[in-house]
Structures are given as C-alpha cells and as structure tokens.
Amino acid sequence: MKFSVLLDILFDLLSKRMLTAAYFAEKYGISARTVYRYIDILSLAVPIQVQQGRNGGVFISDSYKLPVNFMTKAEYEAAIEALGAMYSQLPEERFLAARRKLSAQVKSETRNLTLSGTPGTILVDSGTWGDTRSFSEKLRLVEGCIRDCAVVEIDYDSRTGEHTHRKIEPHMLVYKQSIWYVYAFCRKQRAFRLFRLGRISAAVLTGEKFIRRPFRREDIPLKFWTDETASADVRLEIASGAFADVQDWLGGENLYEANGKWYADVRLPDDDTLIRKLIGLGSAVRVLSPDSVRERVREEARKIARLYE
C-alpha cells in the first residue's frame, strides 16, 4: 500500500463533490477492491461516506472542513498565493501539496468560502536583472542541502571582494530585505556563518552528509551589525521623491512628517556601507546630523565629482 496514493485520494475527495471507485482505480492504476481498502483506512480518521446507486460514489462529509472563520477569504488567498510564489522560487512538491490542501477547503458546490481563482497575482523573483534561472536553481540546490543534510562546495565573493573556496553545511535559508542568505556551518572557519546567496558564484554537491548542529535563531546575525559595531544616531531630511526608497530601507515606523517635510531619526552602523547608501539616494536625501557622517558624505561626493571633471 502506497501512502502517497492514500493522501492523493484524500486530497481528491477534499476538492471534489463526489468521486467513484472507478475514477480512483483508473487514475492510480489499482483495482476497485484496492480503492475500497484505501477508503476503509481513510474512514478511520476522516468522515468518508459511500452513496450507493446509479449516481452514487464516495465523498467526504461537508462537516469535515476548517471552520469558515478560521481564516478570512483574503487570508486564504494570501496564503495560497504565497505558497505559489514560494514554488516559483523553490519548485518543491511540498509547496504545491500545501497549496492544494488549502485550496481543497473550498468546494465550489458546498463551501460558503470561495476564492477568486485568479492565479499568479504574486510573483517573487530574487534574481538580478538579466538573470536566467540560475539563481532559482542555486536556491533550490541549497534548500535541498538543508533538507538532505548534504555538504556543498562553494566559491564565494565577500563584500570586500575576497574570493574564497570552501565547504559549508547549510542549516537555514534566511530572506531579509529582498535578499536570500544561507546560514551554514563553514568548515574553513569552523563556525556558523551567514552567506549571501547572490555572492555564491558556484555551488557543487560533494556527496558528503553532515549531522545537523544545534543553533538558536538568536545566533543568526539578522541585524547584520552587533552592539559592538560602531554606530551613529542619524537624522535625515527626505524629499518626497525618495520617500518610498527610504521607507523600504528603514521602515515606515522610523519616518515622520513635520512642517510638510519627511524626516528619519534612526541608529545605523557607522561604516562605509552607510555612506554608499546615502550617496546612492542622491540629492533627495540630506544628512542633518551627525556632522561626522555629513562630512564623509561630502568627501565621497567630491570624489565622485572629480571622476567626471
């Protein structure tokens, strides 16, 4: 007896009003007798009913469903579309199965809750402009390594431009600010490290397996800077044209309006990354304080201007 067939029969019954034993026998290449064996097993946990007669068949009682108020229509749609979006990044069967389960809560003939039925209203694409499917393939490979405890050999380019070759044991994928990272144990450094997926230029399975190492979610450097890192309390004046960009960067909770202008007061890591970010926003963002950051932005702007003299 195949457990996968048992589950498929259950999903079919959840998504259809009524089905016959002949339908299942033809679909799964089994005998009608075997179909009824599956039905008997399912009926131990699910309220399956069999209706005799010419128009009879097998069906699940309409009482077997999530409560209508378990999620709103919008929440169902969001969950189903999110699973579809994840599948576009990681084409794994389990995302489709989960989406199928949620969709199966809605029977067009019997449910009070109906979905819009409009597919593809959400698209997640983490690849760069001009990228082929290579980014998704890399993401899928790393996700598979996490699931299968497989060691992967990578070529990695650090933020400073250093190129290294190393073996890693992927433990978790991290998605933050539209960027994918993999949290992995690095055999070269003999410690956990957070690798930006876009900086992995090559990834090859080694055929080795690893034993998962314990870690806490708090161990993952999601702040990307620690309390020991030099930081600065920065005040920015933001033109309306840059509001959306700054909102994406700092979050709307750090922005406020006063006298018809937008401002931000936020504590940020005081390093070259901050200066490059501020320069990238151009004249639409002005640093009001501190003076040290203002001066570094001015100096960087002078260097840029000299390149075009």
TrEMBL record:
Per the record, the domain of life is: Bacteria
Domain WCX residues, every copy: 233-305
Q: Which PROSITE patterns match?
A: WYL
Signal peptide start and end residues = none
Q: Residue ranges of the Helix-turn-helix type domain?
A: 7-56
Q: Where is the WYL domain?
A: 138-203
Q: What is this protein called?
A: YafY family transcriptional regulator
Q: Which species does this protein come from?
A: Candidatus Scatosoma pullistercoris
Organism lineage: Bacteria, Bacillati, Bacillota, Clostridia, Candidatus Scatosoma
